[in-house]
Amino acid sequence: MVITKICCIGAGYVGGPTCSVIALKCPNIRVTVVDLSVERISQWNSDKLPIYEPGLDDVVKKCRNINLFFSNDIETAIDEAELIFISVNTPTKTFGNGRGRAADLKYVESAARMIAKVARSNKIVVEKSTVPVRAAESIMHILGANQKMDVKYEILSNPEFLAEGTAIDDLLNADRILIGGECTETGSNAIEELSWVYQHWIPKERILTTNTWSSELSKLAANAFLAQRISSINSLSAVCEATGADVTEVAKAVGLDSRIGSKFLQASIGFGGSCFQKDILNLVYICEGLNLPEVAAYWQQVIDMNEYQKMRFSQKIIECLFNTVSDKRITIFGFAFKKNTGDTRETPAITVCKTLLEEGAKLNIYDPKVDHQQILEDLTHPSVTDSPEYVRKAIDIFDNAYDAVKDTYAIVLCTEWDEFVELDYRAIYSKMMKPAYIFDGRKILKHKELQEIGFHVQTIGRKLNRTGLLRSWATQQ
Ligand code: NAD
Ligand code: UDX
C-alpha cells in the first residue's frame, strides 16, 4: 500500500499541529483533519486558529487548502484515506466505574465505530491518542466485529510526545518516533508504511518500533517520569524554604550529574496541563486493576505531591498578607498552565484563584493568550465554586499587566510568560497598595531589584522572612 491520503480524527492540540507538520514535510500526501466540532473546524480554516502555538500559523498558511484540509465531513475523509490517525481526547472519567482515575475511551470508541461504518477499503488505523495499555486490542475488537467482507485493518500505536508551547519544534525535531504494532507480516508492513511517512523528515534511527503494548505503556511511563521529576524537586523546595537551601542551586547541582540531567527540574507552583495528571491517574488505575497496589501508591504520590505544592503556595500568599485576603484585590499574572500556550487545562492558576476567592479576595487577572471567556468558564465551573454569580462579581479580567495591578495588594505570578520579567516594576509599584507584595510562583523575576524598589517578595524554594526579605547574600540573585 502506498500512502497518498491521511485522515486524522480529532482537530485538537495534537491532531492539528501533528498533521500540519506531516503536510508540510510530505507534500505528496493529502492530509485531512476532521472533527465533530463545526466551530473548531471553522477556526482552523480562519485567520485565528483555535490554539496558540508558536510557529503553527506559518505552517498552516503554507499548506492549507494545498495538501492540508480541515473538514467536518468525517465520512468522506475516512473513506478516502489509506491511513487514519485517531487523535481524539481521552479525558479522565467523571462518572461510573473508575471515576476520577480511568481514561474515558468513549471518543476513541466512537471514532473506531465511525471507521468500521464507513471504510470500504483496507486501512491502517493509528492510535495517536494516549490510551491505557491494551486499548489497541479494543479498537481491533470493534473493527473486527463490524468488518465488511473484503476490508482489512492493521492497528498501530503511535503515541505523541509533543509538549504545548513547543509543539512545532518538538514535531520537526522529535527525540524519537515510537510505533507499536503486531509481530505479523501484515503488522510489520503497516509499521513500515507509517515509518515511511515519518522518514520524510525524521532520521530512521530515531524511529523506534516495539510491540503494541510496550508502545502504549511507554507513553504513560514517559509522562509519569517527567511529572515525577517535577514533584521530586517541588518536594525539595519545601525543604529549602524550611532550611535556607536554595532550590535553584540544588537543582543545578543535581542536574549537572550527567546520569540525572538538567531538564524538568524547575520547581514551580505545581505542574498543570491536560496530560500529566490524567495519564498518571490512568497508570494508577491500571496498576490497581492488575493487583499491584504498591506500584499504584508509588505513582499516586506524584499527584499528591503536586496537590500539596499548589496548596502550599496558595496558603503562603494568605499567610504573608497578614492571614487575611478578605476584600483585598490581588493581581494574577498568567492563567495558562505554562508559557506559550493559551491552554488552561489543569492549570495551577485555578487552584490559586479558587483558594483566594474562597478567602474573600477580589482578583484582577491578566494572561497574554488566554481568552477572557475561558478564564470565566474555568473559575465558575462547578468543581471550583457553587456560587458562579459571586465569582463573576469578584473577578476582573484585563488586557494588559499595567491596568491589572492598579490598587491591588499583591501580584501572584502563576505562568512564566517572558513579558512578565521585563515589565516596568517601578511604575507597577507606584500603582499598588502598600506594602506591595509579589509572589513569584515560577522563580523568574529579578528578586533583588524588586526588593530595592520596595516590594516584599516571596517565591518557591528559597527561605525569606515574613516580609519577603532575603536572609543572606548567598541567596540573592
Ligand atoms: P483536544 O481536546 O484538544 O482535541 C480532541 C478533539 O477530538 C476535539 O476537537 C474533539 O471535538 C474531537 N473529537 C472527539 N471525538 C471525536 C469523534 N468521534 N470524531 C471526530 N472528532 C472527535 O485533545 P488533545 O489535547 O489534542 O489530545 C488528544 C489526545 O492526545 C489525548 O489522548 C491526549 O492525551 C493526547 N496527547 C495530548 C498532548 C497535548 O499536549 N495536548 C500531547 C500528547 C498526547
Ligand atoms: C507534557 C509532556 O512534556 C509531553 O511530552 C506530552 O506529550 C504531553 O504532556 P505539556 O503538558 O504540554 O507536555 O507541557 P510540559 O512542558 O511537560 O509542562 C507540564 C507542566 O509542568 C507545566 O505546568 C509546566 O509549567 C510544569 N513544569 C515543567 C514544571 O513545573 N517544571 C519543569 O521543570 C517543567
Query: How is the main sheet built?
Result: 6 strands, parallel
Number of helices: 18
Q: Give, in spatial order, the strands making up the sheet with the most strands.
A: 3-2-1-4-5-6
The ligands bound in this entry are: nicotinamide-adenine-dinucleotide, uridine-5'-diphosphate-xylopyranose
- Tell me roughly what share of residues is in helical segments: 40-55%
Rg value = 24 Å
Cα separation of the termini: 60 Å
The percentage of residues in β strands lies in 5-15%
Globally, the shape reads globular
Mean pLDDT: 95
Derived from helix and strand composition plus strand pairing, the structural class reads: alpha/beta
Strand tally:
14
What can be said about this structure in brief?
This protein has 477 residues and is an alpha/beta fold.
Question: Would you spell out the secondary-structure blueprint of this structure?
Answer:
Layout: E1 5-9, H1 15-25, E2 30-34, H2 38-44, H3 56-63, E3 68-71, H4 74-80, E4 83-86, H5 106-118, E5 123-127, H6 135-145, E6 153-157, H7 167-172, E7 177-181, H8 185-198, E8 207-211, H9 212-243, H10 247-255, H11 276-289, H12 293-320, E9 329-333, H13 348-358, E10 362-366, H14 372-379, H15 388-394, E11 395-398, H16 401-404, E12 410-413, H17 425-431, E13 437-440, H18 447-453, E14 456-459
Parallel strand pairs: 1-2, 1-4, 2-3, 4-5, 5-6, 7-8, 9-10, 9-12, 10-11, 12-13, 13-14
Helix pairs in contact: 1-3, 5-6, 9-11, 9-12, 11-12, 12-13
Bound molecules: nicotinamide-adenine-dinucleotide and uridine-5'-diphosphate-xylopyranose.
